[in-house]
Amino acid sequence: MSFQTDTIHAGVSPDKAYGAIMTPIYQSSTFVFEDIGKHRGFDYTRSGNPTRAALEECVAALEGCSCAVAVTTGMAAITTVLHLFRTGDEIICTDDCYGGTARLLKTIQEQFGLKIHFVSLRETGEIESYITPNTRAIWIETPSNPLLNLIDIAGVTAIAKKHGLLSIVDNTFLSPYNQQPFRLGADIVVHSTTKYLNGHSDVVGGAVLSNSPELDARIRFLVNSLGTCAQPFDCWLVLRGIKTLVPRMKEHERNARAVAEYLDRHPKVKRVFYPGLASHPQHELAKRQQRGFGGMVSFEVDGAIEQVNSILRGTKLFALAESLGGVESLIEHPATMSHASMGAEHRAAVGITDGVIRLSIGIEDPDDLIADLSQALA
Ligand SMILES: *Cc1c(COP(=O)(O)O)cnc(C)c1O
After folding, report:
1. Active site residue ranges
2. What does the alpha-carbon distance between residue 261 and residue 87 come to, in Å, rounded to a whole number?
């Protein structure tokens, strides 16, 4: 089936009890055995749940892989994957990853003795100099948050394969509609389903996806052992959100393009970060490895923090809030909000200045979004 048809139908079949067309919420911790050693596919919700199974089958179909496991948050997905490693292992991670990912990687480095190399994966030529006999994985996040830098996924996964390393891709920013890392050589994909997959800012969730019998089994074992699994009601909400993924992503992109082009012409804006602009240094790579350019736009203004603050306080439609990927537009300041946990030194190293503002473009009327930014910038 096509991607769009899968968003509606994958994993979903009429309920066996009453024929309900929408997947029921099996809000039950345990399931009655039919006889000793015999149950109907589920015994305890930490190990498996029919509502969660429907979501997992749907997300696996969208990413084109053999296994998806739904977990409580995006960070739970990342936590689960990090349990594949042991003390002494080394991971090479993109240097401008999500702030929460950087914080967790630094914490496990200190507490459990994994070694993390934060490296710019944009220069694929430099990656091999960081590979040692202890290197186990390369952690990719593209486009990056908030600067929308791209990594050539196929280029990096080819290096990983050559050295026997796992390639892990955080695909939250584009969703499987706009980017499909397994087709580009990834071994594991993680999602914060909180963002575009659910799309309505009413749940936090995550997913870990894999595409080999060995990894599928290890990840299922870890989720059951760690207890990072998602709750039935949350799974139902995400499954419901996914049904409108395609039309939402098209509207996010149409609006993001309009806003990016508007900001690009504005005299107070020093720089716009949006891979859909022909001026973006990696526009060609974006066209090659992505279906579309997504709904995130960042921009940099010159000057003092007062100017940044007056823009952040000045919008009426854009709400001042972290997170992204919902139907409503948000504005935020990475240096003091989403990327505060990264630390000033790490931010400076990757170029997230205090003048950078990030927008999550919703699906409102684009003229209203531009009018709102226009009065805030004035
Ligand atoms: C939000 C986000 C996460 C963390 O997800 P939560 O659901 O908030 O735990 C991880 N990676 C990226 C790229 C994100 O945007």
Report:
1. 46, 98, 170, 195
2. 48
